[in-house]
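Complex record, two chains
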Amino acid sequence: MKSHVFGVDVGGTTVKLGLFDINGNVLDKWEIPTRTEDGGKNILPDIAASILEKMAQKNISKEDLAGVGVGVPGPVDGSGVVHKAVNLGWGRFDLKKELGTLLEGIRIEAGNDANVAALGEYWKGGGQGYNNMVAVTLGTGIGGGIIINGEILSGATGAGGEIGHIHVDDDETEECGCGNHGCLEQYGSATGITRLARRALQASDKDSVLRKGELSAKAVFDAVKAGDELAIEIAEKFGDYLGKGLGAVAAVVNPEIFVIGGGVSKAGEALFDYIRPAYEKNVFHGSRNVIFALALLGNDAGIYGAAKMVLD
Amino acid sequence: MKSHVFGVDVGGTTVKLGLFDINGNVLDKWEIPTRTEDGGKNILPDIAASILEKMAQKNISKEDLAGVGVGVPGPVDGSGVVHKAVNLGWGRFDLKKELGTLLEGIRIEAGNDANVAALGEYWKGGGQGYNNMVAVTLGTGIGGGIIINGEILSGATGAGGEIGHIHVDDDETEECGCGNHGCLEQYGSATGITRLARRALQASDKDSVLRKGELSAKAVFDAVKAGDELAIEIAEKFGDYLGKGLGAVAAVVNPEIFVIGGGVSKAGEALFDYIRPAYEKNVFHGSRNVIFALALLGNDAGIYGAAKMVLD
């Protein structure tokens, strides 16, 4: 009888680990450093050692364990092969097989971290009860994860749900991190909002609290709450891009719900007031009545989703 | 032992029907008129009668039959409920149940016609062997159908794959059939190409064979083949919109292949030369190496896909 499952979320600085019962209650969570040197060759052995140690400590046998799920910051295909994870120094390799060798007899599942976090929000977070869901993480960049009939949509090469790289502006002169120009991420992420703010301040003579202090997405949305006119214009522009981008996503996968997380989502549900107008204006009518909700699991979405992968 | 399956494609003027063996070889195909009067109440009884007649004629018993699949020109959800089919006069009703009552003891499956046609191309057409595929029908409008892991992506309300209504132009003044402005369909469909041509002829003084005779997508691509400069500019504009739109689709679902069908696709693989540049420029790198292929089944894609729904 399987009673436990581990969820692992590999980041560029730390690896988050969680021990769950099979109903999804978290029993323990902790972190270990991500050793990215030497092509990241220590990362999997470190994870394996930490899991074996925890199992010994909690008196959990391999027979008790449903398995270990791992979220990776890069494309991972449906068979558990990592295609690349730049921040970890990893190239292409079969993670499921390699970690399986280190943890002999234990079932391993692997997926892209944004997709895995989406699965976490679907299982125990803002998307509970919605079998067709899109998770949108508005952080430094924009991450996306798509759940169709309760399962992650990984895509052909693990690049499914890369909604931050939908092209939304033909006139962009600056380059996106991906090398293209005019990606949604350049306007809808925390970095993108800061760029929009910088441009708006340059283009306008209007007084604004944003002219003092450091520019950030948080500063913009704080100023919005205080009624700052220029900040409201910036938020409208942000919402215009994001609404159009999410409208395109909805034309493709027709979800029941968008679950919005990441640092920018700390602005709260007020965010939706800026996204909805452009969304509703541009989306196909069959997807107009979508729900916008906030993500609930924060940085733990990854370990939840990783655990859920094993239980599916 | 099930030996046969029917595929039915309900159109606004005719209903196409096909009898297949369970390996997907078509044994017979025929059409009946679509009687749309009185809210389309005769359509299902007509289909049922035609199927029963064919079974009698071919000496096929209910026990021999795997079932009947039906493609409908409107949203159909995962449980076989039609949400609306304007061209047939149909509102919301449970097609699976109603046709099941008319054909007692026979398994019924139903889906949106564009999605079902995509399944046909996946099974026996241009997408054979590719489990993650997007079918794009460039006809009067733009239809889309998305296959993920070999299955149709229907979406929450049956509006999955409505890629013709991705917003691609902020400056559009004319209304799309859906009521929005700037949908991909307004530039990439046969009607859209004609619009682009009309605008280009008005905006330019250039000589062009398109100034004589009737404007149509076919006329434009015939002129492209003849080296007509203005026609080439129109084709480039068409390809620019379509490449960007399909780039957005790829950022969401990351397919292995796009299978392009519909009247416009009669221009052949030359079409891809116009789509690829904008696609490659704007798509996320993980989806750059996608395959573009032509649809192979023409108007029969619907009956193939409808039959396949039953066999899945």
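Note: Chain B is about 35% helix and 20% strand.
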